[in-house]
């Protein structure tokens, strides 16, 4: 069904981290009771001032959230209008990252300009992140489905490297990039896939020396 309730729940579920009705209320600037009525379908529509705030918080198209029309996300401007759009939107570049075997220094290689993402200026303050600390990475493979799909794009906060149990992080293990759930163990950590067909990777002892946390994932699109 294409109702506000279902669109709201879909967008909240597609975030890489769990969000709740109190989070929704805080983002919109309304009471818990008002947010709960949106969430359970008792309120069938959302005033434009709240739809604008909630859409930016969720990273979705405001028109889609309000009416169900149009694409769920409209992050990047069309290529022909890219230069004009950059004047009023915040750009985050997309990167490839590698760790040479003979160095501890990460090499970030910026991808083509057309792969950069443009966000409304309120997008980052609502999430309590900064565009200057954010980088976009591409998801390769199906190991994180359904949370993240092959070819999805994620944003990471490069200043947020402290591991919180159960969150999704971008990490390097040796020269290999992983985007995984991270679980704390008594004597190490586990990199856990969302897809049960893929096994987890546990790092303990000296293996932890090969680990570099690039940042926590706080948004996805795909």
UniProtKB/TrEMBL annotation:
CDD domains: HTH_XRE, S24_LexA-like
Keywords for the protein's UniProt record, in alphabetical order: DNA-binding, Transcription, Transcription regulation
Gene3D superfamilies assigned: lambda repressor-like DNA-binding domains (1.10.260.40), Umud Fragment, subunit A (2.10.109.10)
Coiled coil: none
Pfam family, one: Peptidase_S24
GO terms of molecular function: DNA binding
Leader peptide range in chain numbering: none
Transmembrane segments: none
Stretches assigned to the Peptidase S24/S26A/S26B/S26C domain: 118-218
InterPro entries: Cro/C1-type_HTH, Lambda_DNA-bd_dom_sf, LexA-like, LexA/Signal_pep-like_sf, Peptidase_S24_S26A/B/C
Name this protein carries in UniProt: LexA family transcriptional regulator
Source organism (scientific name): Chitinimonas arctica
